[in-house]
Amino acid sequence: MSTAASAVRAPLAARLWTYQRERFPLAAYLPLIGISAVCAAMYSAAASGRPGLPALPVLAVTTLTAIGFFFLLRVADEHKDAEVDVRARPELPVPRGLVTLGELRRVGAFVALAAVAANALVEPRLLWALAPAAVWATLMAREIFVPEWLRARPLAYLLSHMMVMPLLFAYLTAADWLGSDTAPPRSLGLFLAVAFLNGLLVEIGRKLRPPTDERPGVETYTQSWGMGAATSAWLSVLALAAAFACFAAQPTGAGTIVTIGLAIVAPLTAWPAAAFLRDPTTSRAKTIETVAGVWTLASYLLLGLAPILARG
Question: Is the pTM of this model over 0.90?
Fold first, then answer.
């Protein structure tokens, strides 16, 4: 009996646990997504002159919904990439038979229904705030009905798919402004720009490869744009993300603290990319992916918590 066949015969819960470890590692994603979601709501409160935590039941639902939302994006990606994965990455969980696309669809449907029910129970208006992100994610799953056109244009593919990030973060801030029966803060657009740029940073960072790691049929930005252009694009996005985070912090009264914090974190984040340009190795590519996540977490923490520190 093959390893794959044994895995398929194992209980679904056990196979899903292995799947998450490989494709949706909860140990990494729960803190990143959870803290980002909480800080998004805290930023909205601070930018509106109400620093602190929004209503806890609403905050809990939006945070859990965000975690479920990112899982659903992963399930959608498994479907979009199914043919490529069979040809080029047979070691992944779905091609090797650990879980099936049908099983992932059923789990995804349960997660989606649970999220809708939780939002409807705690604050039904949250469903309206979630709807744009859900609609765009559905379009992404269909590659906006122009898959060949998008896949031939990596930049258009990247930008169109990352639009889901500001839409989701608009929903996350609603834990504050909907829960408080107020309008969104005027600086919400700046914060959503940070969300968009952080999404780009993570997405580009996870698809940078040294020449020795490129695989036929597996799309990466180093393969599509060239190593120098792709790494420079990542560094440019980092600079833009830092700038917009500083702008977004100004209405919260924590502009100085956030600017100082990001001035410390940004060079440390940029250093692995500079090293990768000089000597592209697998370990340095992995480090870029890691620091992209660390940067994202640090920027949201600063935007969410610094206003409290600024007010003493």
Answer: yes
* Crossing angle (nearest 10°) for helices 227-249 and 282-310: 10
CATH code of 92's domain:
1.10.357
3-class SS at 207? coil
Written as six digits, the tokens of 264 are 């410390």
Q: 266 and 174 in one domain?
A: no
> In this structure, is residue 158 part of a structural domain?
no
pLDDT digits (tens, 9 = 90+) for 275-297: 999 999 999 999 999 999 999 99
Cβ proximity of 256 and 186 under 8 Å:
no
- Pairwise CA distance, residues 185 & 51, whole Å: 12
